[in-house]
Amino acid sequence: MKMRGKRKDEMTVEQSIVGGSLHGGSLQMNRNTDHVNSHIRVNRSSPFGSSYKEACNLGLTWLYNLGNTCFMNSAIQCLVHTPKLVDYFLRAYRKDINPLGMNLCIFRIQQLVIVLLKELVLAFCPLVMFFVGGLFNVSYSLSQCALFGQGELALLFGDLLRKLWAPGATPVAPRAFKSKLSAFAPQFSGYNQHDSQEFLAFLLDGLHEDLNRVKYKPYIEAKEAEDRLDEEVADEHWRNHLARNDSIIVDVCQGQYRSKLVCPACKKLSVTFDPFMYLSLPLPSTTMRSMTLTVMSTDGSTLPFPVTVTVPKYGRCKDLVQALSTTCSLRDDEKLLVAEIFNNRILHFLDNSSDTIELIRDNDLLVAYRLPKDSETSSLVVFMHEQVERHFLNATSSSKMFGIPLVARISDLSRGSEIRREFLKLLNSFLMPVEDSLNEVDNDQNSANEDIDMEDVISSRLSDRDVNSDSGSGDDSHLGPDDFQFYLMEERGGLLSKVQKMQMNEIVTISELTRPINVLVSWPDKMTKFTILPHWFKLPFYP
Questions:
Q1: Where are the domains of the chain?
Q2: What is the pTM of this model?
Q3: What burial class does residue 97 get, using C-beta atoms within 10 Å of its C-beta: 0-12 exposed, 13-18 middle, 19+ buried?
Q4: Are residues 465 and 425 in contact, defined by beta-carbon separation less than 8 angstroms?
Q5: 22-34: per-residue pLDDT in tens?
Q6: CATH 3.90.550.10 is right for the domain spanning 285-375
Q7: What is the mean predicted confidence (pLDDT) over 200-208?
């Protein structure tokens, strides 16, 4: 990006006190001076008298709001405190006034046409003018219109700037400037609120036209860059631009940017350099964000744990996975599978590394499952949890989802007993100690009259024999209403529904199109008291 002129935004007030007087108080900006007051008396007894303070506070004057014109005042204050513009308008800027100026703008041409039509109709058909005169209700004559655009906007802006920078200046009401502005740009007429950036863009364009040192713009044909250096092409485009546009606005507010275009068909590269006066940029904000996820094992070896990582705000899923891998010390033989959890089930997997994470909200529940890399050939099984609640008053029952889904790679899905064995292995890390389980049951009012040895229940439900046995005997005799029930789920119409209850001693039929395999585990009432899984999202360390 290239800007014309040196950027030395400095402003100093030079003063010399001779014999108790401030002689020739001058404003120096960019090493140019302009005498704003020939003689200021300063009290000898106080080197910091009121006049001295006035000289130091030059330009610190506000503008009155004319209705809701703060959009205009804020833009004007920005310009009248731009050092090089102040330096320019406090000097003899009138020599740069372009006699054409804003007359070349399309809205001025339209107004000129209206005035010409009015004069023609009035000269040749005065009777017609009597009836249709309202169509030509223009507040100025043809002679006035011929002089209307000859630097008036720049002259009014210059006068306004000098009032604000005059010593001892009082607040200024920019009525004359506002009136002329409305004549040039009817969209800013009235005293309603408008867009400040739109006004500033119009004002800069108008000042450039009024102060353009080029009176007659030559036609210049742009040349192709071909194989020339960017510096050479950029200088050529900038010279061409200056041949048609040369003003203080170009010096201070215009630059040049490089744009590159590649044809998708022929792969031809086109490089151009275009001038600009303003760039639309987003408000400054952080480019990073923090995300908290739960990391879970898929072999039941460890409890889940929360991890907070910092990732690019507009990054991709691969950035998230990479940050997680570093934070949780992922081994070389492991990989992460990130999923979004909603209503105690997996909404979707974030398995496309190029997907953006911008749409993930801060309160979304994300889980990262640690999977072995060498298990790609095994089926991915997702275990969801359901608890059946029986209502004794009306003899009915209802079910609700709970907990965090468990994920595992299972190679043998031939029988329900194999699926049950893998589920119990995953559940091992969530088991509470026997002492805690007994205390939990003792505190439950509903179990006060039940004569059950909880230690025997835990041993019978989640014994080492169940978890580690490979016999697959398929004995279903010990499974009753107080044991886990497994159901195969399939997606139908965007919703998961039960399609088959798994029997431990029977072959499970799974469609090849069902990937991943969703299994709903129905928990008996007693079992929810032996594990922290139902309460995982409520634990204090979870966000």
A1: 285-375, 377-443+455-543
A2: 0.47
A3: middle
A4: no
A5: 333 344 343 344 4
A6: no
A7: 92
